[in-house]
Specification:
Layout lengths: L1 H15 L12 H6 L5 H9 L3 H5 L4 E6 L1 H6 L2 H9 L1 H9 L2 E3 L11 E4 L5 E7 L2 E4 L2 E10 L2 E6 L9 H8 L3 E2 L16
Parallel strand pairs: 1-7, 3-8
Antiparallel strand pairs: 1-2, 3-4, 4-5, 5-6, 6-7
Length: about 190
């Protein structure tokens, strides 16, 4: 009986927990990043490279971003080098910015997205999970007022840069933004 009561207590506690990010949000990307500790390094880095105004803008954007763990996984010397080199920091973080709104349902194995910097992101499914190169997509569809965010396990590699993008487009399907008028999926509504 005690075990049953413990289970009921746990279920009641879990059902009262609010998700960190709701399906609809009035926060822009910068406000979303600042409101979550898992994006603390990202938020500071975007401020350092003067991208806060852009990511507070109307969008819509899709942004593939690393969470704090990706920053922590960098060797200290490498992180200091990147932090002190604003053009390099900008290049690394902006590899994941896409114009338009792309939710998880729009991803197919082998599909590609053109990035704002002229690069290409190729979506792959491996073992039932979504990947971009060596970065696993660990969280999807974080809604913002100006777009959508997907969280990566690692930083995107330089293979997504413009000079390497041509290799991706030969064998991939280019995606088009999700229509804002799509009513069948509540997560895609504004």
């Amino acid at each position: 009986m005690q075990r049953f009561l413990k289970m009921l207590t746990i279920i009641a506690m879990c059902s009262s927990i609010q998700p960190a990010f709701s399906a609809k949000s009035d926060k822009d990307m910068i406000a979303t990043f600042k409101s979550s500790k898992k994006f603390a390094y990202l938020s500071d880095s975007l401020a350092r490279i003067d991208k806060t105004k852009l990511l507070r803008g109307p969008g819509p954007f899709t942004f593939f971003v690393p969470e704090n763990d990706a920053f922590d996984d960098l060797e200290y010397g490498k992180w200091v080098e990147v932090w002190n080199n604003k053009p390099l920091l900008n290049k690394i973080l902006m590899r994941g910015l896409v114009k338009g709104r792309f939710d998880k349902k729009s991803f197919e194995d082998g599909s590609s997205l053109s990035t704002a910097n002229g690069g290409m992101l190729k979506i792959e499914k491996r073992d039932g999970r979504l990947w971009i190169g060596n970065s696993r997509i660990v969280d999807t569809d974080i809604e913002c007022s100006n777009g959508i965010v997907h969280v990566l396990s690692k930083f995107l590699s330089k293979d997504t840069d413009p000079k390497n993008a041509a290799d991706f487009t030969r064998h991939s399907k280019l995606l088009h933004p999700v229509s804002q008028s799509r009513k069948s999926n509540p997560a895609t509504q504004k």
